[in-house]
């Protein structure tokens, strides 16, 4: 059943402004105009034709992998049929839409004209599209179908899989998410921001769009809960998510990723560089275990040791204890300072700190594990082949943060400060 035309026209106009702003470059819209296509070299890996739509494609890939790893642990990725991969795609899309916690699901569909209907993939440019602005043409041909249950949405997509796989599939998902959640609700969550969800010049997705796709909430920040900055209460991630998020921007101290994103329910993380999103995943379920109290305290201690020296200035002890929710009364802190810095060197070693407050602390994560990395961008894939890259990871005694110049390792060290990874093909995958 189609939504009322007047209401639909208003909602689509509002969605357009929310996503694109008042003006969008033709080239940016063109780069986002692709469907969800699978790699011929990796049956379950989505490909990205050009820069921009990773803000939608990477989250879908992440949820697809979460479903795949949950249902078929140890299954060979190469054994997957096209029917199975299409099913995974539909379920991943439905998971993203369901996170919006809506009372009604609105699915955007692109109604092809006769010329487009006669093409197999819907990727050709029609005469009508050539004669007018492409984004205007796209909006004029959107239909919206409403459903009461998620199972109805899944059945609809399954019957009409070309909606997702043809030319505008990625954009149609964005419109479906926003129309289902409600434009006004998304705008309220984005109240701190005035920029559109897609950058009108460069075409990359904002953090608000990434968070909307990953969590169902279009908040602008990646820390846990809320933080007060300059008198403003800024909203972050409110609960543990199914899949996580790590960013190299944290290493650059542009942001702080909270525990909810770093420790998701499943061992799948979207990774962010300055300009692109990729996905890291593992079959090792223990990587998704919540941090132990000792691991949390060690992470906090290391945050006061940015050079990776395994010690902090003794003057920082009170701040560390306070951040770790340990006793931080001045008299107690002074007592501990004298004990942990008995030679009065002005430093406190990590080992002494852990032995005092968390003796015999065991890691929740194993010391060695296998990681896999996905980058859907064709130009960033060796030989233009989009495949999962595999690496063997180890958590070392001493962090390597001060020594590495590898962007991948730098990003991973925001979660695992002492991680090192040897990739099977000898080359670290690109984050870009």
UniProtKB/TrEMBL annotation:
Function per UniProt: Hydrolase that can remove 'Lys-48'-linked conjugated ubiquitin from proteins.
Domain Deubiquitinating enzyme MINDY-3/4 conserved, first and last residues per copy: 16-341
Catalytic activity: Thiol-dependent hydrolysis of ester, thioester, amide, peptide and isopeptide bonds formed by the C-terminal Gly of ubiquitin (a 76-residue protein attached to proteins as an intracellular targeting signal)
EC number of this enzyme: 3.4.19.12
GO molecular function: cysteine-type deubiquitinase activity; K48-linked deubiquitinase activity
Pfam family name, one: MINDY-3_4_CD
InterPro entries, sorted: EF-hand-dom_pair, MINDY-3/4_CD, MINY3/4
SMART domains: DUF4205
Family matches, as PANTHER family: UBIQUITIN CARBOXYL-TERMINAL HYDROLASE MINDY-3, UBIQUITIN CARBOXYL-TERMINAL HYDROLASE MINDY-4-RELATED
Record bears the keyword Protease: yes
Keywords: Hydrolase, Protease, Thiol protease, Ubl conjugation pathway
Identification of the protein by name: Ubiquitin carboxyl-terminal hydrolase MINDY
Family assignment from sequence similarity: Belongs to the MINDY deubiquitinase family. FAM188 subfamily.
Gene Ontology annotations of biological process type: protein K48-linked deubiquitination; proteolysis
């Amino acid at each position: 059943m189609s939504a009322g035309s007047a209401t639909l026209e208003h909602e689509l106009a509002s969605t357009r402004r929310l996503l694109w702003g008042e003006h969008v470059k033709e080239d940016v819209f063109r780069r986002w105009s692709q469907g969800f296509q699978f790699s011929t070299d990796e049956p379950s890996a989505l490909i990205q034709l050009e820069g921009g739509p990773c803000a939608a494609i990477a989250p879908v890939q992440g949820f697809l992998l979460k479903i795949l790893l949950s249902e078929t642990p140890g299954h060979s990725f190469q054994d997957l049929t096209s029917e199975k991969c299409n099913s995974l795609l539909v379920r991943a899309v439905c998971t993203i839409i369901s996170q919006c916690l809506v009372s009604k699901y609105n699915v955007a569909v692109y109604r092809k004209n006769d010329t487009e209907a006669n093409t197999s993939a819907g990727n050709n440019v029609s005469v009508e599209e050539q004669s007018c602005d492409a984004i205007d043409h796209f909006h004029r041909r959107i239909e919206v179908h409403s459903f009461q249950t998620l199972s109805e949405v899944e059945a609809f997509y399954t019957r009409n899989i070309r909606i997702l796989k043809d030319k505008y599939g990625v954009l149609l998902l964005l419109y479906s998410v926003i129309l289902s959640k409600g434009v006004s609700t998304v705008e309220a969550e984005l109240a701190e921001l005035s920029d559109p969800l897609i950058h009108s010049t460069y075409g990359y997705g904002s953090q608000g769009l990434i968070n909307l796709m990953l969590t169902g909430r279009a908040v602008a920040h990646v820390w846990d809960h809320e933080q007060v900055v300059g008198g403003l209460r800024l909203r972050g991630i409110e609960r543990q998510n199914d899949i996580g998020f790590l960013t190299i921007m944290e290493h650059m101290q542009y942001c702080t990723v909270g525990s909810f994103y770093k420790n998701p329910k499943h061992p799948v993380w979207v990774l962010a560089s300055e300009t692109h999103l990729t996905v890291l995943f593992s079959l090792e379920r223990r990587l998704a275990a919540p941090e132990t109290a000792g691991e949390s305290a060690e992470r906090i201690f290391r945050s006061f040791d940015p050079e990776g020296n395994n010690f902090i200035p003794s003057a920082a002890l009170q701040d560390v204890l306070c951040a770790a929710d340990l006793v931080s009364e001045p008299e107690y802190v002074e007592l501990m300072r004298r004990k942990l810095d008995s030679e009065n060197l002005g430093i406190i070693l990590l080992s002494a700190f852990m032995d005092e407050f968390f003796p015999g602390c065991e890691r929740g994560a194993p010391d060695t594990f296998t990681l896999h990395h996905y980058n859907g961008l064709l130009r960033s894939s060796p030989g233009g082949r989009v495949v999962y890259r595999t690496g063997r990871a180890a958590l070392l005694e001493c962090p390597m943060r001060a020594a590495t110049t590898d962007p991948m390792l730098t990003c991973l060290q925001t979660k695992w400060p002492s991680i090192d990874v040897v990739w099977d093909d000898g080359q670290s995958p690109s984050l870009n």
